[in-house]
Amino acid sequence: MESGAGSRFVINVVGLVGLLFGALPIVRYLLDVPFFGFTTAPYDWLQLTGFMRFVPPLMVLVVCIVAAYVLERRTQES
What is the DSSP letter of 34? Predict the structure, then answer.
């Protein structure tokens, strides 16, 4: 019988990626906090301005939420 620890670990890592590279960059852009500069490093090369700089972190956040939800549902069904 499996304990599901491996599945939980994957779900937690997906959630952590969503927070680090989805939610925190949005907070950095809204509040202009230089402390969270490491979270926007993957997006800086795009050189987006205005609202468009929110699009990559929003995409990461949505994908991570959906992936965590699907993984959680799959874990509950088995």
Answer: G
- Residues 62 and 50 sit within 8 Å (Cβ to Cβ): no
Encoding tokens for residue 44?
Answer: 């800086």
| CB contact at 8 A, 11 and 71 | yes
Residue 24: what pLDDT? Answer: 94
- The DSSP line for 1-33 is ----HHHHHHHHHHHHHHIIIIIHHHHHHHHT-
Q: Which residue has the tokens 């989805």?
A: 22
pLDDT tens-digit readout, 24-76: 999 999 998 888 888 988 998 999 999 999 999 999 999 999 999 999 999 88
Residues 6+ apart with CB under 8 A from 23: 57, 61
